[in-house]
Specification:
Layout (H helix, E strand, L loop, with lengths): L1 H11 L17 H8 L4 E4 L6 H4 L3 H22 L2 E7 L22 H16 L4 E6 L2 E2 L6 H8 L6 E4 L3 E2 L2 E2 H16 L6 E4 L6 E2 H11 L7 E4 L32 H9 L18
Parallel strand pairs: 1-2, 2-3, 3-8, 4-7, 5-10
Antiparallel strand pairs: 6-9
Helix pairs in contact: 1-7, 2-4, 4-5, 6-8
Length: 289
């Protein structure tokens, strides 16, 4: 989802880039990664094990991609003199705060996925203290993959009402907007304007999954009253989810960049795309067809 958007932004900007999917490159293979990185000025790592629940029973496999693979990339970038932009997650944080997490807040993942991603962050900090950029994001949605927004629209044609959790707080972030920011950060890094370290690549503002679902329906011309609030106890899953995933964005100023736009603004832009059209059979007056 994110990788395709990064390539689209780069193409529109006239910047030459090579995109490698999982069938093209195994990021845990040092020789293959060194060959792929050779000659690159900036490497953007959008590869990840993203099955949060699956990681609970396969933490070693998740860490091989999210941790070991990132170390391999960082080593190759260090050898090649390339900047590495590594996409990480809010799940490296404990999720129990009451105020937005700063970039230097203490980490403390509550699930296997978060632990695996933290291993990757640590590798970047260790091997690329000046030329490594960890960009934490959260609640991503976009055109090119399964995501919450697309699921809510799909279910509009299948169910009269939907119960959505209202006790998890975060910042819904459009993958295309994040892709644009990654490209801007890469350019700032090459120009020497952006110090290495952790950045928070999430939308401004905050909401809950319930709030996101209602706003998705409202902007799509569907009845938001079809979305009903519930709490996390109604959806027991293998992996614990952090209750508070709101991130602060202070470090962007040091790179000469503003925080990403408010989540509502991003959502409105995304929903204008054909990929997010409300499906046929979704009754805009309050019931499924």
């Amino acid at each position: 989802m994110l990788g395709q958007d990064v390539l689209a932004v780069l193409k529109d900007a006239g910047i030459a880039a090579t995109g490698l999917g999982r069938t093209d490159l195994d990021i845990t293979d040092p020789a293959a990664v060194r060959a792929a990185v050779e000659g690159a000025a900036v490497v953007v790592n959008c590869a990840a094990w993203t099955d949060v629940d699956g990681a609970e029973s396969a933490e070693e496999a998740a860490t091989a991609v999210n941790g070991t693979g990132v170390r391999v990339l960082a080593e190759a970038c260090a050898a090649a003199g390339a900047r590495l932009l590594h996409v990480s997650t809010d799940y490296v944080l404990p999720g129990d705060a009451e105020q937005p997490y700063a970039e230097d807040s203490a980490t403390g993942p509550v699930n296997a996925y978060g632990r695996s991603k933290l291993v990757g962050e640590q590798a970047v900090a260790e091997l690329l203290p000046q030329h490594g950029y960890v960009v934490r994001t959260a609640w991503l949605y976009g055109e090119h993959g399964p995501n919450f927004v697309a699921t809510m629209l799909k279910l509009a044609a299948q169910r009269d009402t939907l119960d959505v959790v209202d006790d998890q707080h975060g910042q819904p972030t459009w993958s295309y907007a994040l892709a644009g920011r990654l490209v801007e950060l890469g350019q700032a890094a090459l120009a020497g304007r952006a110090p290495g370290g952790v950045y928070h690549g999430t939308a401004s503002g905050r909401t809950t999954w319930f709030g996101l679902a209602r706003e998705t329906y409202r902007l799509s011309g569907l009845d938001p009253e079809r979305i009903r609030p519930t709490d996390s106890s109604a959806f027991v899953r293998p992996a614990v989810r952090p209750a508070f995933s709101v991130l602060a964005h202070d470090r962007w100023a040091g790179a000469g960049l503003p925080p990403l736009a408010d989540w509502r603004e991003q959502l409105a832009a995304a929903l204008a795309l054909p990929a997010f059209a409300a499906p046929e059979g979704a009754d805009r007056n309050g019931s499924s067809g």
